[in-house]
Amino acid sequence: MLWDVEFNSGAFYPARTDIRLAEIAEERGFDAVWKGESNSTDPLVLLSGMATRTKRIKLGTAIYHVYGRSPVTLGIQTATLNDLSDGRVLLGLGVANKNIAGWHQGTFDRPLRRIREYVEVVRAVASGDKVDHDGQLYPVRGFKLSWRPSHPETRIYYAGLGQKMTHLAGKIADGIILNMANPAKIREIVANVRAGATEAGRDAGAVDVCVKVRVAMSKDRELAKRKLKQVLTFYNISDHYKDMVADEGFAQEGIAIRAAYASGGFKAAAAAVPDHMLEGLPLVAATSVDEVRERIAPYVEAGATRLNIPFVPCGGDAGTEAEAFLRAWR
């Protein structure tokens, strides 16, 4: 089992703090540090800073979406960061949702074709070879990097939820990133990923399964629960994830949360999240690192090969709390 960490959930981490935390995560034996993209700080900028201050820890995007930049641009950025970090990039990509697409004047459509073509171009560009891609959405003619990358192979992970996307991940991706998936859903997705890999003639066991389990740790368990309920509120009012949460057995709870949001706003919605939702979804409110390890064991048993722990601070200084968590990890 590979243990990863992320500082991107429930609080704002200043850029310099993120870089310092990556150094500590490397010292404490974590295999990778991940950074997501939405309206928060930029992943590749921060990961580049982390690359200059670390030697071993892998640097992942979880996730970069396809609407913020062309695949040629991301291929150039990936090749650059792979050279800078001596090949430590794990490139997590996804199609996001209508809201994020709209921020970038994009159209949320044809997600399977969009992600497949996008990845094909990124991989080809980052390899340093000449790119002639006859795509419907991302046609590219005659592009070639001006230098030969030292690490031409790029490990690409899909962010997947649905049957078709996770099946495609098994066919062509190096791994899949699962967000807000409980053990039962993980088993379902892992079976689907493996089926896709087998269909494509690939080694099904070679496809990484990176599972996110958010953790809040405090001596005051109720405080930790409240912070995680805020996170869960966001997922119950978001496209796609609200459907996944419902599919995992919390349809009525989700309806009640969205009704509270419509009538009273975010705080009212968070107050409407029951404790049993935290227990049935990948959100751990713990009082110690030992309890964290105990509570995340079912996700390992369900098929995770990487366990990504986005740390959710409970209040005060996010960097100080995250550092204490990392130093307590054993």
Percent range of helical residues: 40-55%
The third-level CATH topology of the largest domain is TIM Barrel
**CATH homologous group name of the largest domain:** Luciferase-like domain
Q: What's the number of extended β-strand segments?
A: 12
Number of helices: 13
Give a structural overview.
The chain has 330 residues and is of the alpha/beta class. The protein has two domains: 2-214 and 283-328, Alpha-Beta Barrel (TIM Barrel), CATH 3.20.20.30; 220-282, no CATH class. Helix content is 50%, strand content 17%. The chain contains 13 helices and twelve strands. An eight-stranded parallel beta barrel has the order 1-2-3-4-7-8-9-12, surrounded by six helices. Strands 5-6 form a two-stranded antiparallel sheet. Strands 10-11 form a two-stranded parallel ribbon. Helix 7 (183-199) links the parallel strand 8 and strand 9. Helix 1 (15-27) crosses helix 2. The longest helix has 24 residues, at 241-264.
Supply the key terms.
globular; 13 helices; 50% helix; 8-stranded parallel beta barrel; alpha/beta; TIM Barrel; two-stranded antiparallel ribbon
